[in-house]
Structure formats: structure tokens, C-alpha cells
Write a structure and sequence with these properties.
Elements (H helix, E strand, L loop, with lengths): L5 E8 L2 H5 L2 H8 L5 E3 L5 E2 L4 E8 L4 E6 L2 E7 L4 H10 L24 E2 L2 E2 L4 E8 L4 E6 H4 L7 H4 L4 E11 L14 H12 L8 H15 L19 E3 H10 L5 E3 L5 E4 L1 H7 L6 E2 L2 E3 L7 E3 L5 H19 L8 E2 L1
Parallel strand pairs: 1-4, 2-4, 3-18
Antiparallel strand pairs: 5-6, 6-11, 7-8, 9-10, 9-11, 12-14, 13-14, 15-16, 16-17
Bound molecules: uridine-diphosphate-2(N-acetylglucosaminyl) butyric acid.
Uridine-diphosphate-2(N-acetylglucosaminyl) butyric acid binds next to α9.
Amino acid sequence: MRVDASADRFLQIDHIERALANPRLREEWLADPQTLVVGGGSNILFVTERIGKVVGIKAADHGFVDEGETILAFAEAGLGLDDWVRLTTAQGLYGLERLAEIPGTVGAAPIQNVGAYGMQLCDVLDSVELWDRQKQVLLHWTAEQCQLSYRNSRFKSEPNRWLVLRVWVRLHKKPPADWPNFSYPGLADEADAYLMTKKSPMSALAASDMAEIVTRVRRKKLPDWRQLLPGSLGSFFHNPIVSLQHANKLKANWPDVPLYALDDPDSVKLSAGWLIEQAGWRGRIFGAAGVYDRHALVLINRGGADGKEILQLAEAIEADVWRHFAVQIKTEPMIV
Ligand code: EPU
């Protein structure tokens, strides 16, 4: 979000096993629940400007085990998630391509079960190697044990307990049965334009092409995280889930409201971006902060905003969405 924050002490882990063999690091740093673990810092809003101890993993080794039709690929927590997507898709492997262009590290990906364009990490996750900061033991959890759901996991519900060390995913050498799946709005049009410039037929579409198509769609909707400004952390709110009864009431008043069916027939998912736009917030300026003009779910730092200002903006939006629609939207990033 490009707000200023500094750590009194920062510890960077370059080699995981060597670091965990060090009792001082385990006890003084990791066992202290006050120590903040950061990945890329791209999904954190710092409201406080001073933090005591911060740990970051820099170790970024990666590799795979060939299991015939599938590949078990691993990456250490410090590798950029986007780098991992590019590395695996360049090798012709299918599975991570829709997670292209998401900022942050591999280690942060399971915490909120990152997802985009019709997939989530849980669709490919095999297991996660972890350090239990409280009990000071190494664990290797299956995907099920991580309890990933929409933008949530067991790690998120027990903050300051887990340090993700390595992530394992199962990738495929051949395209999946529904390849290429362009059901997410916007992908099909972008794919047509992309294939036209590449002068390549749809039948030749590879995993790396899908990563490129997703990248182009993201760049049209979201600020470029490689640039300094505007600062953003992607979606600032979760898409809310409401009862079918409430959704029907909304539909009666706003016939265009987008409604997404869920496995539970009594609940419906709404688009927070739509609600915020309808409440009149898209593109609005709020001091040095604001709402991105290309996507109402994205709050921005236009330069010089602090965390408190951004949080105030978020609270004003939340209250206004409640006033208009009686829908509670909840913030998505980690707020420190
Ligand atoms: N919409 C509007 N106005 C807006 C923005 C969106 O009306 O200003 C409506 C439109 O109807 C649009 C719908 O909302 O069709 C959905 O918008 P979009 O496809 O951009 O997806 P989203 O639900 O807003 C989610 C994720 C994104 C992810 C995209 C694509 C959440 C909280 N966000 O956004 O994730 O990239 O889908 O899969 O689930 C992130 O988590 O930081 C993030 C960017």
C-alpha cells in the first residue's frame, strides 16, 4: 500500500534449515508472538509506523519430483509467487497459470488461499511445510489440514503461530479436460486479441499463454504493483455472502445486481466492487487516498497517505454500503 512503516529489528532468513537450527532465532524471534512475519508485504496495511521485530524469508529454492503424468513442484517461502508461475508455465506445466501477476511470495499464498480467474491455490495445493512457532517443531501438513477456503485458512485463523517454509503443488504435464477454460468474464475476449497478435491458433494455447492472458486482464483492472504509485493491496474487501432471501430483496430493487451461486443453495455471493461502485465510491478521492477509478474494490494510496487515512476511507465505504444495501463488507488485508 506504500505507507511508511519501519521495524526496530529485521531478520532475514536466507537458509531455512540453518536458521531453524539456531536456538536464539527459534526462541527470541520466532516463539515471540509479537514478532511479525512478512512475505512480500503486499497484503498488509500498516496502521502503526513502528514495529518491534520483523522476520522475512528470502530463501527461494524451487524444484520438482516427476511422478509420471503429474509433477510435484515445491518452492521455498521467499520465492515470488509470480516468479513461480512463470517458471512452471515456461516448463509447459499446467496448474498455476491463473495465479500470474499476483504480487507477494509463495510463503504468503496459502495464508489467504490466493485465487484469481476461476482458480484458487487450494485447487493445486498438495502440502505445506511449516514451523510451529509455539511448539517449536517442523510440520508437513497435507492440503486438507491447512483448511483452505475462500480467502481463508487455518493459518489465518491462528495468527502468529505458523511460519510457512515450503509449498508443494501438483501440476500436470497435459492440459486439463476443460482446457482452455475462459468462463471467467473478460478472459475470452483477451484471449482472442492475444492469439490474433501472436498469430497462433487456440488449439496451440499453452499454460504460459494463459498466464499472459490473465496478466493482461489484471493490468487493465488493477494498479501495477511493480510501480511505486498508486499504492494498493488488490481487493480491499471480501466479496460478501448473504442469504438467498436478502439477495432476492436486492434483486427486486437493483435488477442488475450480480449474484453468484454457491454450493449452499440458501446463500449467495455478491460483488463487493459492484456494491461500492453503486454506492458512488468508484474513482472518489479521499485526501491522499482514494478508490481506484478502474475497480471500486481497490483502495489506493495516491502518495503520502498513511494507514489510518486508508482505514478511515475503508470504514466510510463499509458504512455507506451498509446504509444502501444492508450488506456488511469485511476488510480482506492483514491490518497491523
Ligand atoms: N464490479 C463492478 N464495479 C467495479 C468492480 C467490479 O461493478 O468497479 C463488478 C462487476 O460486475 C464484475 C464483478 O464485480 O463483473 C467482479 O469483478 P472482478 O472480476 O474484478 O472480480 P472481484 O470479485 O472484484 C475477485 C478477487 C480478485 C481477483 C478477481 C479475479 C476477491 C476479494 N477479489 O475480485 O482478487 O483478482 O476476483 O478472479 O475475491 C485480491 O484478492 O487482491 C484480488 C485482486
